[in-house]
Automatic annotation (TrEMBL):
<dbReference type="InterPro" id="IPR002912">
    <property type="entry name" value="ACT_dom"/>
</dbReference>
<dbReference type="InterPro" id="IPR045865">
    <property type="entry name" value="ACT-like_dom_sf"/>
</dbReference>
<keyword id="KW-0479">Metal-binding</keyword>
<dbReference type="GO" id="GO:0003941">
    <property type="term" value="F:L-serine ammonia-lyase activity"/>
</dbReference>
<keyword id="KW-0411">Iron-sulfur</keyword>
<keyword id="KW-0312">Gluconeogenesis</keyword>
<feature type="domain" description="ACT">
    <location>
        <begin position="118"/>
        <end position="193"/>
    </location>
</feature>
<dbReference type="GO" id="GO:0046872">
    <property type="term" value="F:metal ion binding"/>
</dbReference>
<keyword id="KW-0004">4Fe-4S</keyword>
<comment type="similarity">
    <text>Belongs to the iron-sulfur dependent L-serine dehydratase family.</text>
</comment>
<protein>
    <recommendedName>
        <fullName>L-serine deaminase</fullName>
    </recommendedName>
</protein>
<dbReference type="InterPro" id="IPR004643">
    <property type="entry name" value="Fe-S_L-Ser_bsu"/>
</dbReference>
<dbReference type="GO" id="GO:0051539">
    <property type="term" value="F:4 iron, 4 sulfur cluster binding"/>
</dbReference>
<dbReference type="InterPro" id="IPR005131">
    <property type="entry name" value="Ser_deHydtase_bsu"/>
</dbReference>
<dbReference type="InterPro" id="IPR051318">
    <property type="entry name" value="Fe-S_L-Ser"/>
</dbReference>
<keyword id="KW-0456">Lyase</keyword>
<comment type="pathway">
    <text>Carbohydrate biosynthesis; gluconeogenesis.</text>
</comment>
């Protein structure tokens, strides 16, 4: 899911392993699984054992380290992804049963499971900003199952995580980007539907 959020294959990757991931993760193939995801491979892809080699062949620079990331799930990793001017920091955990949870994107707290069709929208904190986005979702007759809005401070950048019962058309992203306060929008299909491949859009306003 980190690659989907980033929007493209990164050139430079720093992966910080925490807790159980730090002590046993690399021996249990966590390193290869994380890199396979960044390559856009499905969890059951037969090429997974070769992910580190493939990443190197594609010019992806990958660096692993271990650190105490604080009060987070034991199976947590911090990913710093870069490609040119595009940079992002994502904190995510493997919470069991094949499920993952993204809890932070850059400095903004989120809760993203990947179980639903999801819109990630970054926008400036302005009156009516949230309503302008949700009204577009409603216009497409798509039901919102959950929505979380986070901001760093009043008037700063905000992030909306909108989980939906149905998948809206991909054309919804350009519509949302036309909203005055929106800076960035991305549509993700459920992980169960896409097997790790990127199919949404990643646009900069």
């Amino acid at each position: 899911m980190a690659r989907n959020i980033f929007g493209e294959q990164p050139d430079k990757v720093e992966i910080v392993l925490h807790g159980s991931f730090a002590s046993t993760g690399r021996g249990h193939g966590t390193d290869r699984a994380l890199v396979a995801g960044l390559l856009g491979w499905a969890p059951d892809d037969t090429r997974l054992p070769q992910s580190l080699k493939t990443a190197a062949e594609l010019g992806m620079q990958v660096e692993f380290s271990s650190a105490d990331l604080g009060e987070v799930h034991p199976n947590t990793a911090l990913l710093r992804l870069e490609k040119g001017k595009n940079k992002i920091e994502i904190l995510g955990s493997s919470i069991g049963g094949g499920k993952i949870l993204i809890t932070k994107i850059n400095d903004i707290q989120v809760e993203l499971s990947g179980s639903y069709a999801t819109l990630i929208v970054a926008h400036r904190d302005r009156p009516g900003g949230v309503a302008s986005v949700t009204s577009i979702v409603a216009d497409h007759k798509v039901n919102i199952s959950a929505m979380r809005v986070s901001r760093q401070s009043r008037g700063a950048r905000m992030m909306m995580i909108i989980e939906m019962d149905q998948l809206p058309p991909e054309g919804i992203v350009p519509e949302i980007l036309r909203c005055q306060s929106v800076e960035h929008a991305l549509l993700l299909k459920p992980i169960t539907a896409l097997g790790g491949d990127k199919i949404g859009q990643n646009n900069q306003h």
